[in-house]
Amino acid sequence: MNILIQKYFPEIAGEQIKQLDVLGELYYDWNAKINVISRRDINNLYEHHILHSLSIARFIRFTGGTHVMDVGTGGGFPGIPLAILYPEVRFHLVDSIGKKIKVAQSVADTIGLKNVTARHCRIEDEKATFDFVVSRAVMTLPGLAGLVRKNIGKVQRNALPNGLICLKGGDLQKETGPFGKNIISTMLSDYFDEPFFKTKKVIYIPL
Fold first, then answer.
1. Whole-prediction pTM
2. pLDDT (tens digit per residue) in 170-179
3. CB 203, CB 185: distance < 8 Å
4. Distance, CA of 38 to CA of 50 (rounded, Å)
5. CA 198, CA 22: separation in Å to the nearest integer?
6. Pairing of β 67-71 and β 132-136
7. pLDDT digit string (tens) for 144-172?
């Protein structure tokens, strides 16, 4: 298993290790055909994309049966790494770009993820409800929260109330301001030592 993933998630074992190992080969192959990840960044796949996606698991541990939607998933981030870590949690991946959702679905199918579905659509057109919505820097927090509020279910299964969990970076004062104290912002440098995470945050908004 990739040394960075092993460093922070030593509990990962068995089939999960194999699945994470295969991700590198699959994304390198797809990226040669479709620019799913920046060509300059593909060599940082495990740190900048896979470990970054898994950082949500340092903030919240989803209980079995939780249903999560990944909005603007691109090639499957953060949804696919999280689906590997949480085989008992269902993940629904959504993106408005068809060729990217094709990559996400293909990767999930190739590594045998049974807990992943994928849909090519705009978030406005997805009517199903979920416990949590996750996303990586797709749009501003107020804009995204407004769009996904309709998708947050009422049944509570986790330690945190249902809501939106975003991976973001940089100065977010303008984005977080409208939510006042009704928001939790955690620096990923609290979890990871690598310089990449110094300005990265996980943002949680109950909805």
1. 0.96
2. 999 999 999 9
3. yes
4. 14
5. 28
6. parallel
7. 999 999 999 999 999 999 999 999 999 99
